[in-house]
Design a protein that fits this description.
- With 536 residues, this protein is an alpha/beta fold.
- It has 20 helices and 19 strands.
- The chain has a 6-stranded antiparallel β-sheet with strand order 3-2-1-6-5-4. Strands 8-11-14-7-15 form a 5-stranded parallel β-sheet.
- Strand 18 and strand 19 form a beta hairpin.
- Helix 2 runs antiparallel to helix 4, helix 6 packs across helix 7 and helix 13 crosses helix 15.
- It is globular and about 85 Å long.
Length: 536
């Protein structure tokens, strides 16, 4: 192969200069590389805390962008990162290829093929890697060193420009440090990265960037499993309090008699079991942030005391007359419609308005076009590491099924589906590449039919049967939520009555968690008094 021509070099420079966005700049770089060097796949990866994160790729399955490759777990990546010059792997190299099963040009274990990696350096520091793969053996053998040096330099410059632009957008050293910490957390903790390129997720990220630096109280709204806690963690990390504590409180899990003690603390002797002083969550969060998850579950008397914290930054420890000052930012989350709760007298209007200075709505997964594939790749890589697999991939049919499902349990459900499917696939595979197919994801089909199956097996009313008893849909003011709640109320009430008010037995019949069923029943106004079930 000849050296790269000056004309090609000029065209590449002009292409990169005319690129308006980082994504466009990366795509033009990869296209030019493929034009100069014949290959079936080219990937640009960023180095972050011992991991390689794909930024752009051509020739691999789309889920590759969701993966995070641990450098030391992949010998080929380790060899590239430990070098300062391009690494051409021998055609017969015994080292496993991290892209096995992902090349669009070949399905299955990669046979003998050409593989090359270029370390991207800036100021004598590794900032990224460019990899090239071809199904034609020896195709990279005759590429002149100068051509590879030019490609490395242009790729490193492109990546360095993207990094500098990102730093400039942050406007402060503090926020740069927060971003690095978030990135590290994303790589070492499951679900740590706010991931998604859909329009609604990009809008959410812009809102977080805008409001994080303020000290406003934030109400995070969204369905179960969408990632409200992750949004709260991101808000905290990007705030001026990012180096302070972030204290998590699950309001639904607190016993009603101990909520005040948990939130504000107590002194010894304040009540019967108070045998020692206890520091409350607000005191622990002083100088930082407190995250009140499922805040809609707080009883009204506690809501009034929380209002005082918001108004005056004051708390009163249980059993103590004097008030204490705290410096705490409050983030709250709920899967309820708090406006409705306020209208029905179950949530204080003044507290709602204090909390929702800037409400943030986290979109459901079914409304995040294109993100299911990205998240699937992310969870596939996490699961592969957890289960100690050499390689784990998704068949095209499985990706299609994941994208067609409506995900009532959102991102959390997707993570669990991937984990279960991986276990099933591992159990049915001998060794090598493990591929998840439709046969490993019966859960998707089972969940879609679960509600109707439950009704037919338990003698419970079907949703359409229930609605047919209504004189017209207008009774619900064309409100799907009201119709759904009416059906849930009737279904749960009937099962509870048949089980003499036993929540555990009812939860078992309905194939759900007892605590979740109890919480849902409370929200629907279902009460059990002396084994008599009533519903409002």
């Amino acid at each position: 192969m000849d050296e790269i021509s000056p004309q090609a070099l000029i065209e590449l420079a002009l292409d990169l200069a005319n690129s308006l966005t980082t994504k466009d700049r990366f795509e033009r770089l990869l296209s030019t590389v493929r034009h100069v060097v014949t290959c079936d796949a080219v990937v640009l990866l960023d180095v972050e805390s011992g991991f390689l994160k794909p930024l752009a790729q051509q020739g691999l399955s789309q889920d590759a962008l969701g993966r995070r490759f641990e450098i030391m777990a992949h010998p080929r990546f380790a060899a590239i990162c430990n070098s300062v010059t391009p690494v051409r792997f021998a055609t017969e190299s015994p080292l496993p290829d991290p892209y096995d099963g992902m090349l669009l040009a070949y399905e299955g274990d990669l046979p003998v093929h050409a593989c090359m990696g270029l370390p991207l350096m800036s100021d004598h520091k590794l900032i990224g890697v460019l990899t090239l793969d071809s199904m034609s053996p020896h195709v990279f053998d005759d590429i002149p060193k100068r051509t590879l040096d030019i490609i490395s330099a242009m790729s490193a410059a492109t990546l360095k420009t993207a990094i500098l632009l990102q730093e400039l957008e942050r406007h402060s050293v503090h926020n740069q440090q927060v971003l690095a910490e978030l990135t590290h957390e994303a790589l070492v903790k499951d679900g740590g990265e706010l991931m998604g390129n859909s329009h609604v997720m990009l809008k959410l990220k812009r809102e977080i960037d805008m409001v994080a630096i303020s000290d406003f109280s934030i109400l995070i709204e969204g369905e179960t499993g969408v990632g409200k806690e992750l949004v709260a963690r991101t808000l905290h990390r990007q705030s001026k309090r990012g180096e302070g504590p972030l204290v998590y409180v699950n309001c639904a899990a607190l016993p009603e008699s101990l909520i005040e003690s948990e939130l504000f603390g107590h002194v010894r002797g304040a009540f019967t079991s108070a045998d020692r002083n206890r520091i409350g969550k607000f005191s622990l969060a002083d100088g930082g942030t407190i995250f009140l998850d499922e805040i809609g579950e707080l009883p009204l008397p506690v809501q009034s005391k929380l209002l005082r914290v918001l108004q005056n930054q004051e708390i009163q420890v249980v059993g103590k007359d004097a008030v204490e000052q705290v410096n705490v930012r409050i983030l709250a989350a709920t899967n309820r419609q708090l406006k409705v709760e306020v209208a029905q007298g179950r949530f204080r209007a003044d507290l709602y308005h204090r909390l929702s200075v800037y409400p943030i709505s986290v979109p459901p997964l079914r409304g995040r076009e294109g993100d299911v594939t990205l998240l699937s790749g992310h969870f596939i890589e996490l699961t592969r590491r957890k289960l100690g697999m050499q390689q784990l991939t998704l068949r095209a049919s499985a990706i299609d099924a994941l994208n067609q499902y409506d995900w009532p349990g959102n991102v959390r459900e997707l993570e669990h589906v991937i984990a279960r499917a991986a276990l099933r696939a591992k159990g049915s595979a001998s060794s090598g590449i493990i591929r998840i197919g439709l046969e490993h994801m019966e859960h998707l089909v089972a969940t879609q039919s679960q509600l109707s199956t439950l009704g037919s097996q338990s003698g419970l009313p079907q949703l359409n049967d229930h609605l047919s008893e209504q004189t017209s849909v207008a009774e619900f003011d064309n409100d799907l939520k009201s119709a759904t709640e009416a059906f849930q109320r009737k279904m749960i009430t009937q099962v509870l009555s048949e089980e003499s008010g036993n929540w555990s037995a009812a939860a078992k019949r309905l194939q759900t968690d007892r605590a979740n069923l109890n919480r849902l029943g409370k929200r629907l106004g279902i009460r059990v008094t002396k084994n008599i079930v009533t519903g409002s």
